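Sequence design from tokenized structure. All designs in this work follow the same two-part layout: the structure record, then the generated sequence. An example of the structure record is given first.
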């Protein structure tokens, strides 16, 4: 019955790897259907206004065109919590790119041609799309993303800051950033009477099921959402998005299956993005760098459709000991698409600002940046006062310093050159909450000695299918190849979203719980399995409620070495190192991949990525991968990843924390700090483009 080979922590290869590399893995629009129709959306060409007329005559003249849906004839939808899904329900246009029509035809080419032939006339209204620090529409929201408090204050920040011998006061900006998963948002929808089946690219089949049931007035059991393989998401697929709703509406209208895959240049307007931020950081400290006062004030934007507020100031509530602190969020609702989750929401832009300011404080105090962070290590979580379940940030910093050769560097600004190149190094800390969400699972033992585990988890490319199999096999004490894990369907026991770095903890816990009970039942029967098998179900909602009240976070440290050409402003990252404390690492191979992927994305954030709002046109200029620059192989050096062996019994039965997002947190700040060390130029607005850097270098009085 038992196996002696360790399964948890082993570098097990992805179980679906062969399917993916041979093309056998089916994504949202790969599933074969009979009498298939294809849909192509029509985006609004104005920023704000009302549709006054829609001429579909030319589009419908093609016999291949089955229907053109508009607000005048589209199926009526019920209300949900997300007004962005009320597609084709109103003539009002709230932002450029909002869908105003949908062409459906027997071929993709005919659908696209029909969409281009539709003529929409608008009555336009003045628009406002630019976020500014003094925007007259700024207001205090009731809460920010993840249900966090909008503002928090401890002590008397104003007095403590005014009396501090050393003060930092700086504004940091991050641009709008767009999720660009390899597989765009896509869906195949088909109806069988009142039963709706969708093959959809999403991060939460259970959540999409509930949303579609609400929209179409159906019982949850009448909706079947399949997302067995998902080509990336980064948060953009965390909830139902307009494409799956349109596909279902079209399939009901034309009475045949409909496939809809968004062209990449339409993604930015309807699938979410990271909102731009303007963040003011003020730190007051004594000459040795001990922080007395810390304020983090964040400004961001949302749409006029609904409110989504990036919680950028929230990580400052966790990181450093500060007796007097303030963190606030203000938001302006603009005529723009609704922002949403993007890898490490809140922590990613917020920690860029905080960790850049910490580097500035270290210089002002003449203290090594690692030593500064160590001196401000809190005994408990500063905001809540709760003990940490585990916190090994200092160990990550010290281990990283040793591996990186930090203390052997020339600490002088601009002190190292190779020819004309300026060389610098930087460090930043990172954190992300260790979350777990209610989920269910089933474990089944068959008479032939095999096992099946069922949970509607979403494997968005992270290796979830593999890690859950490891958890099940390890708990049952059986070989890996005797266990099959089924994921990616709302017909399976409901599970939480693949987001917030919570997936493995949220799904692995009920899998572990079900397999533990199954093993006990088998032992009681002498491992004799009846012909029908034995099935055990598990639900962890009550287990979560009964947990001890602790602050649960993962921590890490990123180190970067860069080279800057002062003649061109070109910055290249030469080395990246990440050291993390993220509980028990359940699969060393897929974990390393996740850390490297996050740090690569952080490099892109620092040097390449950014969406530029055109104030007159009212849209972001970068709408495809030719204009929106993500890091290519030539941009990425060899990335070194290590982790601390961290034991934390207060998390879940596996002792694991999420790892999908902490890799990006801190990386951009480490690179920006390295650029300052190389050049003496402090860049407080991302990305660090050559034109900005070379102009700043030219303004300096002499060689750095």
């Amino acid at each position: 019955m038992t196996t002696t080979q360790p399964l948890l922590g082993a570098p097990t290869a992805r179980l679906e790897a062969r399917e993916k590399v041979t093309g056998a893995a089916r994504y949202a629009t790969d599933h074969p259907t009979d009498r298939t129709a294809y849909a192509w959306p029509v985006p609004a060409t104005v920023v704000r206004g009302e549709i006054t007329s829609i001429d579909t005559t030319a589009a419908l003249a093609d016999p291949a065109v089955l229907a053109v849906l508009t607000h005048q004839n589209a199926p009526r939808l019920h209300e949900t919590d997300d007004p962005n899904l009320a597609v084709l329900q109103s003539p009002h246009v709230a932002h450029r790119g909002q869908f105003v029509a949908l062409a459906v035809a027997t071929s993709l080419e005919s659908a696209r041609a029909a969409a281009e032939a539709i003529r929409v006339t608008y009555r336009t209204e003045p628009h406002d799309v630019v976020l500014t620090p003094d925007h007259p529409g700024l207001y205090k929201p009731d809460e920010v993303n993840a249900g966090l408090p909008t503002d928090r204050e401890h002590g008397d920040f104003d007095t403590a800051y005014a009396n501090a011998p050393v003060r930092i006061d700086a504004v940091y900006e991050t641009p709008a950033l767009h999720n660009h998963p390899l597989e765009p948002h896509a869906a195949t929808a088909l109806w069988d009477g009142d039963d709706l089946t969708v093959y959809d690219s999403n991060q939460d089949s259970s959540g999409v099921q509930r949303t579609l049931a609400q929209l179409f007035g159906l019982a949850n059991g009448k909706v079947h959402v399949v997302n067995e393989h998902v080509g990336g998401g980064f948060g953009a697929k965390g909830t139902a998005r307009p494409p799956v709703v349109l596909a279902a509406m079209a399939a009901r209208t034309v009475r045949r299956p409909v496939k809809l895959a968004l062209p990449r240049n339409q993604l930015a307007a309807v699938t979410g993005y990271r909102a731009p931020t303007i963040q003011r950081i003020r730190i007051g400290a004594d000459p040795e760098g001990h922080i007395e006062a810390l304020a983090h004030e964040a400004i961001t934007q949302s749409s006029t459709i609904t409110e989504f507020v990036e919680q950028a100031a929230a990580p400052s509530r966790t990181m450093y000991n500060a007796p007097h602190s303030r963190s606030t969020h203000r938001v302006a609702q603009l005529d723009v698409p609704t922002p949403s989750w993007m890898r490490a929401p809140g922590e990613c832009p917020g920690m860029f600002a905080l960790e850049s300011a910490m580097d500035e404080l270290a210089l002002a105090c003449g203290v090594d940046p690692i030593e500064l962070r160590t001196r401000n290590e809190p005994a408990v979580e500063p905001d809540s006062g709760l003990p940490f379940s585990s916190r090994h940030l200092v160990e990550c910093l010290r281990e990283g310093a040793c591996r990186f050769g930090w203390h052997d560097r020339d600490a002088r600004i601009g002190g190292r050159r190779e020819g004309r190149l300026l060389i610098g190094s930087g460090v930043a800390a990172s954190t992300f909450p260790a979350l777990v969400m209610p989920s269910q699972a089933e474990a089944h033992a068959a008479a032939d000695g095999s096992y099946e585990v069922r949970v509607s988890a979403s494997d968005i490319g992270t290796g979830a299918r593999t890690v859950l199999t490891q958890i099940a096999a390890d708990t049952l004490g059986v070989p890996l190849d005797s266990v099959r894990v089924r994921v990616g369907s709302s017909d399976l026991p409901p599970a939480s979203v693949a987001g917030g770095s919570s997936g493995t903890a949220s799904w692995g816990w009920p899998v572990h719980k079900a397999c533990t009970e199954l093993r006990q039942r088998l032992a009681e029967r002498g491992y004799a399995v009846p012909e029908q098998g034995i099935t055990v179900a598990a639900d962890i909602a009550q287990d979560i409620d009964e947990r001890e009240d602790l602050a649960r976070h993962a921590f890490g440290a990123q180190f970067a070495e860069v080279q800057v050409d002062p003649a061109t402003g070109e910055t290249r990252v030469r080395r990246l190192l990440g050291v993390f404390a993220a509980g028990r690492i359940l699969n060393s191979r897929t974990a390393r991949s996740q850390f490297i992927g996050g740090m690569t994305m952080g490099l892109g954030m620092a040097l390449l990525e950014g969406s530029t709002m055109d104030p007159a046109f009212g849209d972001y200029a970068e709408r495809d991968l030719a204009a929106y620059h993500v890091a290519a192989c030539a941009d990425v050096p060899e990335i070194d990843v290590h982790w601390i062996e961290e034991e934390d019994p207060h998390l879940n039965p596996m002792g694991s924390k999420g790892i999908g997002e902490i890799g990006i947190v801190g990386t951009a700040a480490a690179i920006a700090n390295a650029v300052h060390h190389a050049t003496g130029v402090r860049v407080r607005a991302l990305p660090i483009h050559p034109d900005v850097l070379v102009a700043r270098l030219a303004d300096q009085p002499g060689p750095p």
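The chain has four domains: 17-25+436-545, 37-126+183-270, 128-175+276-379, 387-434+552-704. We note this feature because it recurs in several other targets discussed in the main text.
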